[in-house]
Specification:
Layout lengths: L2 H22 L13 E8 L10 E8 L7 H12 L18 E4 L2 E4 L13 E4 L6 E3 L2 E2 L2 H9 L21 H5 L18 H6 L6 H11 L7 H7 L14 H5 L6 H13 L13 H6 L1
Parallel strand pairs: 1-5
Antiparallel strand pairs: 1-2, 3-4, 3-5, 6-7
Helix pairs in contact: 6-9
């Protein structure tokens, strides 16, 4: 045996003894496994591709110890672990995109910011947004809603469209504040689908969300087509089907007030209010450049 091999024997013995001593130490007690915290979810199901399938509620049981705190977390867990056929919309998970709007325990809200009620033994009931055609499960057909939004022409309009984009349009701080509480709308349709007037006349009445966005562009100091915008709303149905029931304001997950915006539109249509002149010349930079 070489001298190098002989010299390594003491180190090997020391290492073996060290691991043997560590193995002899008493093992720390492993934490006890948490008792399952089961929560039931009754979810609306309907698949048009299944012959004879009718709308029904299906119950799922989720262990809240292995699930995030929000209703959307539970839906994702159900889809991933229990039933991959469950269909719903979701995207940002931050209450910004509006994709996961649905009716949870009787309230229109966003699943991603709706906390699971872990204190109640009652099942959480989840339906698609009410009074809309259902494509599948929790997915409503939003086509009519988006067509109504398109009808208000939700973009900045100027008399001289040829100059648009060449210079920024100026706006005073005070004029900008008028848009607060309006531009934050994420078009989730929670308010519109909570409105009985929209249930009854959804084909003609534009609904709270769209009317709030119409008002947002009407009062924008940089927009020069306010009169034309108001004229398009001047009929018996577009605005005046609102009866100030205020379900829209109560249910808005962003804390906005569509009812107030609709009231302001009515005042403008009736001539009780007018759009104030801009505090700052919006096209001042364009004129300077010319």
């Amino acid at each position: 045996m070489s001298s190098k091999a002989v010299s390594s024997i003491p180190k090997l013995v020391q290492s073996t003894a060290k691991y043997a001593a560590a193995a002899a130490l008493p093992k720390a007690d492993t934490p006890p496994k948490k008792e399952a915290k089961i929560k039931k979810f009754n979810i609306y199901r309907w698949d048009p591709d299944k012959n004879g399938d009718k709308p029904h509620l299906q119950t799922y049981e989720v262990d809240l110890n292995t699930c995030g705190p929000m209703v959307l977390d539970a839906l994702i867990k159900i889809k991933n672990d229990l039933d991959s056929t469950l269909t719903f919309r979701r995207s940002c998970r931050e209450g910004i995109c509006g994709s996961c709007a649905m009716n949870i325990n009787g309230v229109n809200t966003l699943a991603c910011i709706s906390k699971i009620d872990s204190t109640s033994s009652k099942a959480t009931k989840i339906y698609p947004l009410p009074h809309m055609y259902v494509i599948k499960d929790l997915v409503p057909d939003m086509n009519n809603f988006y067509q109504q939004y398109r009808s208000i022409q939700p973009w900045l309009q100027r008399e001289d469209e040829a100059q648009m984009g060449k210079q920024q349009l100026l706006q005073s701080v005070e004029d900008r504040k008028k848009l607060d509480g309006l531009y934050e709308c994420i078009l989730c349709a929670c308010c519109s689908t909570a409105c009985p007037s929209y249930w009854w006349n959804g084909d003609k009445y534009l609904g709270p969300a769209v009317l709030m966005q119409a008002y947002r562009w009407i009062i924008d100091s940089r927009d020069e087509k306010s009169a034309e915008r108001l004229e398009r709303l001047r009929d018996p149905f577009s605005v005046y089907r609102c009866h100030t029931i205020m379900n829209c304001t109560k249910t808005c997950p962003k804390g906005l007030n569509p009812g107030k915006a609709i009231a302001e539109v009515k005042k403008l249509l009736a001539g009780f209010a007018t759009k104030n002149k801009s505090e700052m010349e919006a096209d001042a930079l364009q004129k300077a450049a010319a």
